Amino acid sequence: MSGTPPGAPTSTYRIQFTPDFTFADAEAVVDYLDALGAGALYASPVLEAVPGSTHGYDVVDPTRAREELGGEAGRVALSKALRQAGLGFVLDIVPNHMAVGDNDVNPWWSDVLRHGRGSRYAGYFDVDWEAGKLLLPFAGDEGSEEEHEHYRLAFWRRGNAELNYRRFFDITTLAGVRVEDPEVFEATHGEVLRWVAAGEVTGLRVDHPDGLADPGGYVRRLKERSGVWLVVEKILGADEALPASWPVEGTTGYDALREVCGLFVDPAGEAGFTDLARDLGVPVDFAEVEHTSRALVADTILRAEVRRIAALVRHPDRAEAERAVAEVMVNFPVYRSYLPEGLDAWRAAVAASTSPAARALDEQVRADPGGELATRVQQTSGMVVAKGTEDTAFYRYTRFAALNEVGGAPDRFGVPPEEFHRRAALREAGTPLAMTALSTHDTKRSEDVRARLAVLAEIPDEFAGHVRRWTAEHPIDEPSLNMLAWQSLVGAWPITADRMRAYLDKAAKEAKVRTTWTDHDEEFEAAVAAWPDQVLDGPVAAEVAEFVDRVVLPGWSNALGQKLVQLTAPGVPDVYQGTELWDLSLVDPDNRRPVDYEVRRRLLRRIEEGWLPDVDDSGAAKLLVVHRALRLRRERPELFRGYRPLPASGPAARHAVAFERTGLVAVATRLPVGLADAGGWGDTVLPLPPGEWTDVLTSRPVPAGAPRLADLLDRYPVALLVRGDR
User: Are residues 246 and 371 in the same domain?
Assistant: First the structure.
């Protein structure tokens, strides 16, 4: 890390731009974000994208601001409003790929289709020109295939096996871009860097760096050219660190998400959930599920990528070369290595492979770690891991869904406080300006759904009894999906049948057990689609509602606890749009629903006037925590330095998690059901550092010495203490 970059925000607030939420709409809430305490608006991609796109990651022209969002004039007006409010502007950029098709939406790609290898943009895209004409797998059937001068319009099913250009995962409409080429870097980044130079963009978030040929070289160039706060969407394994040579402030926070959320999961619940899963026929060996899922992905939807890499291996048996390439990528202990850094991960993957061609692959890669073979294996291993683990295994291994999160470790049942404190101290020492997150546009479920599900780990037998009874009434004829469905229903309750139906349809297809996105089991899909109405219109719905009433209060306690910890622990916390109130969203596109900012404005105005809301359905208590913590970070950044665990003392000490920074103490309740069952805090105290303290949430003075937690946490299950009279 290279010191504190100019414009490093105290916090960020993520906005998802869509044609229905434009630059002008964002400009209209700048005053709200300022009042909330946000340090910067963190924007989803804003360059010209596919018409109608609701996410913006399908860029078609990186040289201009997106017209559907308000174009250049709208972007400039928003930038001006943010600067006037003293807020930063962090931009999400997409260097790995651009949207393509057999149309003229993307001008660079269209030129390639017209002129083939002779196009001035032919080298912009990662195309295997030696394989012949560009294969475009966009035809609806074999009868509509067409031969053109420079490309073949082919049946879409041929793409996974025959594609001759790199893509984003298995999405053939997103073609890989060669930003390792300086000319391509300038062409794709010039406009954004112009905004940076003008002071209109103060930070950058890099999407999917693992897809790049040379991520380290890329971020070094980007940092040199921009000089701003820079974070990368790098999904780290549970025990993995960012390459030390990368001049970035850190990741986008999935590592912190695992640690913070895991802190509120009771490890004692593991056996009960394992027993329930096994009884219902759900797999309980995560390593086996993960390996099988990755192998499926390598052998099917990423078959073209495996073949292209194997063609570079100097081995006489092409089939064995393909097997070796697939095995090594499937066996990666992390998403990818960054050779020559990360050699241990590479060695582990090779050692676990059985193909006799693995040795030839290993020798060739190590002899030239910057060569094409090494580069392509590393670019593709992240695709195999992401599609195999996140988008397949997480929908098959559904023992306890709260752990099945991007960057998560479903086989590690929670995070002990000692581990949390150790990792928080490491973040403060090494990457204090890394982003931290609890909800993102890519999370499998929102932070508040996870917080409620964490309660179930405290009452596994009670929940198991309900699930067995409910399943007997309304089974889904695929055990993993059935287990996931009941957890999701409880976690997101109350939820409409339409939202639940859309979620289960996606989950079933991602799992690839009974149906997939491309090979449909229509009868099974129809049964899954009918399930939400059958449950919600029948007597089981009342039982679900009654059970949710039992877990909702401790769920709110967990939600407030994990939010306060995230907002005050080391790192730069991000608040995903709308999650300053309770948010019970599931996976995208459910988490991109419109946010009602007027409701939030009204509640915030009352809080600013001194209102201390109850912990209730309104979610205003969460807004209070977010507001007070963010404002404190922005107004008194000197408090958010250093890190020291602060242990409680007494019979309920394990139910408190607390830490001190510099003149600041954060306190949260964990495992609230067990705390209540034990009779509450009793004589448990929290020994404080010397001085007078004030709880910023309630504005109450705190007794010096060792206050009783029963008194400190009588109003809220969290406290935010500042030394002196606040």
Answer: no
